[in-house]
């Protein structure tokens, strides 16, 4: 999009917002219904686009994208009236008579910048929240998921209100240009590096930002865990999307007594999910770009493969790899892996594992496999993260009522369900005062009037 087209599009969105039409319940509902229509009618086209982008199967797109997006739309449709209701606030006796409430109002024209790894959801779930909150929205899907970006652009222009909602397709340079414009809120999903740039650009306009970033989410497997289930669930969560999931378990911390058995069970799980040669499995995606492929190929050297690690440069294939003998100081343990490599570290006492987790930056998620409630409480209390899940992984992000987001370096701000509605609204504090009573004590002169606590 040229600079003048950006300006024109933003002018159009701003003018629409000024008319006030996006604030009405009827408009919000109609756009949510339109988005649902797009999703239902174009489901096959969407799945095909995601497959073209990085070889992800239609089944996985259903499980991790379309089904969740549909749920978010349904949840917004079901709850919108309630979310929009002003909330009454108590007025103390000495400020009577008056009626106080808070009302959530839309920011105005907001920008949503999506990442490529769940290319539909990361652009359209924030759109659901932003529309539910009554905003005009410019969506910038990731250029790396090129085909999905096209489907989103076509879908929004065909199904939705083009006066209020638009798509901007472009790469990093275009986005830098876009961020020179003033928005009323920027919602960003992506890397910490780009998040910093987005925040700097937004600061020039004093625009509030929500940053959904990444991090190294640990998964602790204690010696009392049900190892069969743990192995299957860890393998599923790690190698889904070929490890390119922001809340994937980044590394394992396994109790020394459980290590051998868990490793064997995980190898079995890989074979049962993807066969002996995962390259032939229709359910195993590819790495999104050459840059990421080269980065991951380099990280493979940081451990001894228990299984996997074969690579195929032309198709950007990396076999699901479990690595042991990993030095905690090695590059693979310094930043988010974001690919199908799973380093396994061991511990002998839970305190040792927790100290290790606490040494790192706060991640998006902390996972734990254990049968014990006291271990569960101990790990929950001793760590910090955007989300926490025991005896499973990823599902904390699938429950619409659980706010989703990071803490510290993994980002700030929450969305999904009501949290998303709130993220795209500002709180307006409203007080209706009665003209009666109007006592003299509040007005000067104060001499002779008694004030004390
Ligand atoms: P990325 O930061 O490279 O790109 C994300 C988006 O930002 C893209 O639309 C891109 O065009 C844009 N962008 C890139 N550089 C920019 C810049 N300098 N200025 C403005 N915009 C810029 O990230 P990615 O490779 O698409 O996604 C991977 C990262 O995203 C991982 O770190 C992952 O953990 C994180 N992620 C987080 C979540 C979450 O919900 N917290 C979800 C998915 C991915």
From TrEMBL:
Cited PROSITE patterns: ALDEHYDE_DEHYDR_CYS (PS00070), ALDEHYDE_DEHYDR_GLU (PS00687)
Keywords linked to the UniProt accession: NAD, Oxidoreductase
Record-linked Pfam families: Aldedh (PF00171)
Protein's GO biological process: aldehyde metabolic process
Transmembrane residue ranges: none
Aldehyde dehydrogenase domain segment(s): 5-430
GO MF annotation list: aldehyde dehydrogenase (NAD+) activity
List of catalytic residues: 212, 246
CC annotations in GO: cytoplasm
PANTHER family: ALDEHYDE DEHYDROGENASE (PTHR43570), ALDEHYDE DEHYDROGENASE TYPE III, ISOFORM Q (PTHR43570:SF16)
Family under the similarity heading: Belongs to the aldehyde dehydrogenase family.
Protein name (Swiss-Prot/TrEMBL): Aldehyde dehydrogenase
Native species: Chlorobium phaeobacteroides (strain DSM 266 / SMG 266 / 2430)
Organism ancestry: Bacteria, Pseudomonadati, Chlorobiota, Chlorobiia, Chlorobiales
